[in-house]
């Protein structure tokens, strides 16, 4: 995987947004701060600013998505960009060559930005390495690798509800193995300097070597939740599981599902997050999902502000332009 | 706040009151442009005894030079505490030169709603207009060489600084 240099230009400004890995605290904080100033735009009568007027953004989705695609589309529209959604069927475009062909065809239409979602890990990096110099790429989720805008909207949610991140203990629970969200969250949490990141998963869904990212592996949910400030639940990604990795959903819930009773182990003012879509009764109980400590719907609103921030930062001027 | 800036703001407050009274524009809504304009607006807000909270605007999302300059790294959000619809808005900035900032601010205000009127008050107006925008209330007028510029430093003390090679 290419280094952070692909994401930043010569002056350290965001050029592509592919992964939270390799971006330092200053860059991540700048994105969060910019999102903070975009957040009020969604509450106005006219929910639009003219910043990206005349720019063309293509949502290039090789994998189905509702929430991510919709919030990227809304973010682009609130920045006054022209946005087009392309849902490319995965079967016709899994080979590198045909992906490049698709890309160059679209580039010929004078596109300024691609938002890419793909089932293959590394797809967004691949595209970023092959686009024309004036085109920016945002990763909307690639395989089991990264989902950086989701991770940053989670960081934004935590900062909004907890004030800061420094003193916090965050626990990520669920299908870590298949979760691009979890990987991006861990990198972001560590870069932003939280006190501790814990991960909880059944052994079959815990990737070996996850400790190397800086997370503490907990044996069970109660240990993970003990005194936690932030509880980040993950969706069971059945579509990425090949073979019998899990017992039935009922049993999964018994050991790894979050209900009010288990949640009592966390701090009284802990917040509960979920990237959606939720499997109610599998990884999270409705009582918690709809409860006082849930910030799941806030995450969705903040997602638009985060996407507006990375889109406008990536499409601002870059090395080579004047300043 | 240095005496001269305080005196300028005092005279602006007097002019503004006379002007608003003459036009029967009651309970004006003060909006200051980040950062210098917001400082001046704070003082006017107090001098005019306005009870409603002050609004602040950050025009970064409305600038016409985004393509050349890109995003400002640290952008404070705009904050309009009350609806602007049918209100008499007083827009406050520190320095009026090209007029581009005011153009951007007006666009932003109209994205919040439809004010009954907008009055422009600036601490300093200088030459160099590039679009047809003029202030209604002016603290001080200056003519400066092209390579010199005037800015307001602050917030405590507020001081006008003239810099440049000349």
Give the oligomer, counting copies of the same chain as homo and different chains as hetero: heterodimer
How many domains of chain A? 2
Taken from the alpha-carbon principal axes, the silhouette of chain A is globular
Strand residue content of chain A: 5-15%
Question: Can you characterise this structure?
Answer:
The complex is a heterodimer of chains A (323) and B (166). Helix content of chain A is 35%, strand content 14%. Chain A has 11 helices and 9 strands. In chain A, strands 7-6-5-8-9 form a 5-stranded parallel beta sheet. Chain B has 166 residues and is an alpha/beta fold. Chain B has one domain (3-65, 78-164): Rossmann fold. Chain B contains 4 helices and 7 strands. In chain B, helix 1 packs across helix 2. Chain B is globular. The two termini of chain B are 26 Å apart.
Compile the SSE list and pairings.
The complex is a heterodimer of chains A (323) and B (166).
Chain A: H1 25-38, E1 56-61, H2 67-78, E2 82-87, H3 96-107, E3 113-118, H4 123-130, E4 136-142, H5 148-162, E5 169-173, H6 180-191, E6 196-200, E7 216-218, H7 221-225, E8 230-233, H8 249-256, H9 260-263, E9 271-273, H10 286-289, H11 296-315
Parallel strand pairs in A: 1-2, 1-3, 3-4, 5-6, 5-8, 6-7, 8-9
Chain B: H1 3-22, E1 29-33, H2 36-47, E2 55-57, H3 66-69, E3 88-96, H4 100-112, E4 117-126, E5 137-142, E6 148-153, E7 159-164
Parallel strand pairs in B: 1-2, 1-3, 3-4, 4-5
Antiparallel strand pairs in B: 6-7
Helix pairs in contact in B: 1-2
Features:
heterodimer; A: 323 residues; alpha/beta; Rossmann fold; five-stranded parallel β-sheet; four-stranded parallel β-sheet; 9 strands; 14% strand; globular; B: 166 residues; two-stranded antiparallel sheet; 4 helices; 30% helix
